[in-house]
């Protein structure tokens, strides 16, 4: 399942209302480290049923800042956040965004 792009707070709120758990990648369109992280994220999106979303920080800075503030997770780029029940239950950034890391975190989600 390919990651969908979200661009504003309304779209993000829709995702929160619709999905019990999902990944969100904060991706910089100009950073080579972010490009590598996005490759890992996109590869993993093909092997999971967990919904995956991407936010382009240059195009949705207001949303990115709101998420950092609301969930008290310092903004980094690239950064992956795992949401469950409207809470960030895990996050990582930069070179730690790997298919293996995403898979390990997904395995720990309570699917009840």
TrEMBL record:
Pfam short name (any one): BrxC
Gene3D superfamilies the record matches: Glutaredoxin (3.40.30.10)
InterPro entries assigned to the protein according to its UniProt record, in alphabetical order: BrxC (IPR022551), Thioredoxin-like_sf (IPR036249)
NCBIfam families found in the cross-reference section: B_thiol_YtxJ (TIGR04019)
Stated name of the protein: Bacillithiol system protein YtxJ
């Amino acid at each position: 399942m390919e990651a969908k792009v979200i661009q504003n707070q309304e779209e993000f709120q829709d995702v929160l209302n619709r999905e019990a758990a999902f990944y969100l990648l904060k991706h910089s369109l100009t950073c080579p480290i972010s490009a590598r992280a996005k490759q890992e994220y996109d590869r993993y999106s093909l092997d999971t049923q967990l919904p995956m979303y991407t936010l382009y920080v240059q195009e949705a800075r207001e949303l990115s800042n709101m998420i950092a503030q609301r969930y008290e997770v310092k903004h980094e780029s690239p950064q992956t956040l795992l949401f469950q029940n409207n809470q960030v239950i895990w996050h990582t950034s930069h070179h730690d965004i790997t298919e293996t890391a995403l898979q390990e975190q997904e395995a720990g989600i309570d699917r009840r």
